[in-house]
C-alpha cells in the first residue's frame, strides 16, 4: 500500500520539534510495511503555502500512484479533498483546532472525507461528528525511557541542587503559560529550592533528556486533543500536574505521582507541591497500551477498510 501524507506540521531544519507526532506516526506505519511519502505544506512560514499546496498535490499525483491520502490538520485536509480520485483519511489533532473559524472548517470538512480520526472522546465531542474514530497519539517507549536524573541534569547544565518544574511545547495562547508562571511563582513563595524551565523547539530525540532532568511536568492548557507530552513524561516516570483537558484525566488517572488540578494558579501550585514530593511517578507501567506501534496498527486497519490488502494499486 502506498500512502501520501499531506500535513502542515512536520519537523524541519528551522523547527525540529514541529509536528513530531506526525513524524512518529509515519515512522511507525513505515515499520508496518506501508510505503509513505510526505508532502509538507509549511503554512507557518507563509499562508501562501496553503494556496501553493494545491498545485503541489496535483503535481505529486501526476508522478506517483497512491492508494489513499492521509491529511493532518484541517487546512491540509481541504487541499487533499480538492481531488476526487483517491480516498482521504483526515486526522484532526487538537481540541484547539475546533475553536473559531478553524472549528467551523473542521465540521464542514468531516463529512466530505472518507474517514476521520480524532484523538480523544472530548475531541470527538467538540467535532460533533459521530463516525469519527478515536485513535490516541502514541509514544515511542524505546526513545522515552527513564535514565538517571543527575546524568540528564549534567547534560543540560542544570543546577543539581534545585527541583525543576518543566513546561514543554509550542507556546501558543491556549497553552496558558500565564498559569504556568503564576503557579510557579506561588510555589516559589513556599520553597526556595525550585526553578522553572520553559522549553520549546528542541529536537525530538533531545526531549527525553529534559523529561529525565526535571522533577515535575505541568500542563494547564485550555485545549488539547491527546497531548503526547503527557505520555512522554509518563514513559520517563516523570511526575505530572495537568488539568482535565483532552484525555489527560483518563491517561493519568490513579497513577502515583500524577495529579489533576483545577485551572487556577492556587490549585496548580498545590498540586505541584504534592508532585515534587515524589522522586518518580509510576507512569511507564500505565501507558504500555499507548505505544506508537498500537497507534499505527489501528490506523493501518482503518486504511484497509478503504483499500483492502489484495486491492492495493501500488506495491508496498
- What is the CATH homologous superfamily assignment of the largest domain? Glycogen Phosphorylase B
Quaternary arrangement of the chains shown?
A: single chain
Q: What's the CATH class of the largest domain, please?
A: Alpha Beta
Give the distance, in angstroms, between the N- and C-terminal Cα atoms.
5 Å
The residue ranges in which pLDDT falls below 50 over 5 or more consecutive positions are: none
Q: Tell me the helix content.
A: 25-40%
With strands numbered from the N-terminus, the spatial order across the biggest sheet is 2-1-3-4-5-6
Rounded mean pLDDT is 92
Structural class: alpha/beta
Overall description:
The structure is a single chain. With 316 residues, the chain is an alpha/beta fold. The protein has two domains: 2-138 and 291-311, Rossmann fold, CATH 3.40.50.2000; 149-290, Rossmann fold, CATH 3.40.50.2000. Helices cover 39% and strands 16% of the residues. The strands form two sheets. A six-stranded parallel sheet has the order 2-1-3-4-5-6, with helices on both faces. It has a five-stranded parallel sheet with strand order 8-7-9-10-11, with helices on both faces. The protein is elongated and about 60 Å long. The model has no long low-confidence stretch (mean pLDDT 92).
Topology, element by element:
Layout: E1 2-7, H1 20-31, E2 35-40, H2 48-63, E3 68-72, H3 74-80, E4 88-91, H4 100-109, E5 115-118, H5 121-127, E6 133-134, H6 149-156, E7 163-168, H7 177-188, E8 194-199, H8 207-213, E9 216-219, H9 228-235, E10 240-243, H10 248-252, E11 258-261, H11 265-275, H12 283-286, H13 292-306
Helix pairs in contact: 1-13, 2-3, 3-4, 6-8, 7-11
Amino acid at each position: 500500500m502506498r500512502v501520501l501524507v499531506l500535513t502542515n506540521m512536520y519537523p524541519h531544519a528551522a523547527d525540529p520539534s514541529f509536528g513530531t507526532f506526525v513524524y512518529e506516526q509515519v515512522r511507525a506505519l513505515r515499520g508496518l510495511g506501508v510505503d509513505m511519502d510526505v508532502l509538507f505544506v509549511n503554512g507557518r512560514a507563509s499562508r501562501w503555502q496553503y494556496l501553493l499546496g494545491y498545485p503541489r498535490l496535483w503535481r505529486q499525483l501526476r508522478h506517483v500512484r497512491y492508494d489513499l491520502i492521509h491529511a493532518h490538520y484541517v487546512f491540509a485536509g481541504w487541499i487533499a479533498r480538492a481531488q476526487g480520485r483517491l480516498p482521504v483519511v483526515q486526522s484532526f489533532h487538537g481540541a484547539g483546532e475546533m475553536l473559531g473559524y478553524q472549528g467551523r472548517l473542521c465540521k464542514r470538512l468531516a463529512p466530505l472525507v472518507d474517514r476521520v480520526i480524532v484523538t480523544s472522546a472530548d475531541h470527538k465531542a467538540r467535532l460533533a461528528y459521530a463516525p469519527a474514530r478515536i485513535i490516541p497519539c502514541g509514544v515511542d517507549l524505546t526513545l522515552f525511557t527513564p535514565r538517571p536524573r543527575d546524568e540528564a541534569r549534567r547534560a543540560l547544565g542544570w543546577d543539581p541542587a534545585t527541583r525543576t518544574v518543566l513546561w514543554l511545547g509550542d507556546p501558543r495562547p491556549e497553552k496558558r503559560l500565564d498559569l504556568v508562571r503564576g503557579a510557579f511563582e506561588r510555589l516559589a513563595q513556599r520553597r526556595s529550592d525550585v526553578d522553572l524551565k520553559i522549553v520549546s523547539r528542541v529536537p525530538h530525540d533531545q526531549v527525553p533528556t529534559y523529561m529525565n532532568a526535571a522533577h515535575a511536568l505541568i500542563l494547564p492548557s485550555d485545549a488539547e486533543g491527546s497531548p503526547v507530552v503527557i505520555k512522554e513524561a509518563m514513559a520517563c516516570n516523570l511526575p505530572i500536574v495537568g488539568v482535565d483537558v483532552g484525555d489527560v484525566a483518563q491517561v493519568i488517572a490513579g497513577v502515583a505521582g500524577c495529579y489533576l488540578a483545577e485551572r487556577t494558579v492556587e490549585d496548580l501550585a498545590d498540586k505541584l507541591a504534592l508532585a515534587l514530593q515524589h522522586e518518580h511517578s509510576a507512569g511507564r507501567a500505565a501507558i504500555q497500551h499507548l505505544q506508537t506501534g498500537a497507534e499505527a496498527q489501528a490506523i493501518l486497519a482503518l486504511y484497509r477498510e478503504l483499500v483492502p490488502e489484495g486491492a492495493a494499486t501500488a506495491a508496498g
